[in-house]
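Appendix B. Chain record.
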Amino acid sequence: MSKRTVLVTGATGGVASALVRSLDPAHDRVALVSRNAEGLDALRGQLPDDLEACTIVADVSTAEGADQAVVRAAAHFGEPPARLAHCAGSALLAPLHRTTQAQYRDCMAANQDSAFYTLRAWVKARLQTDEPRGSAVLFSSVVAQIGVANHEAIAMAKGAIASLVPAAAATYAGHGIRVNGIAPRADTDGRHRTAVCLPACRGADRSAVSAAALRAGGRPRAGRHMAVVRRGRMGHRPGPVGGRRVLPRAPHGPDGRLRGGGTHRHHRRRDLRARSRPTAARCRP
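Structure tokens predicted for this chain:
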């Protein structure tokens, strides 16, 4: 069985490095893309010897750099990468009135422009093959979904990526190309502990999303609601982030058991039936 070729941009970053280390040398081969040549060499030295990999120094925030990265990866492995993990990006923490024009342009180029140009170059290469099927994962951020102070520029940039994901997924679904997105939240220690799956078109590639979640403590699921993944468990958070509403707890007795027996779900169904039942006043002629 032929190995899967994975193109990873922003390879020297923490997210991409963790993803690369999780690849299986028996089934995967990887093209590492970054502007940092020294960081690429250091990362290559940390990978298993049996993992087939190539390093590409390119700036994917430009159209030429993104095209060059995909072409060089295809030339090295003999075919365009079937998987794309776009991990390139940067964060800018500054209030709106203190953000300079240069800071704003750099933030948009590193995040929005790099995602657009890289996905475009990868899709063009896939469409030129006999079997264009493939899957791509882009990274947004929860700051594009909720209001966080001093994140105006990065929220705009990551919000653009969140809009790009479902649009591209709908456009290329007929070609078997799947596009998914993840919106992680970085804690104060820099580790990504929470991820939100961005809604995409029907038939979203759950396996690709799971791979790009970098084993953050759960299995993200693409669907109607944005699933929140925490370390060690997965649940749905109510509120501005989105997700299913949490069912109210049924009343408990002094011994801690549910009054009247049954489960939380049983009490919830019984309550809904009671509300939907017509009252005596409504039944009067």
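Further analysis of this model is presented in Appendix C.
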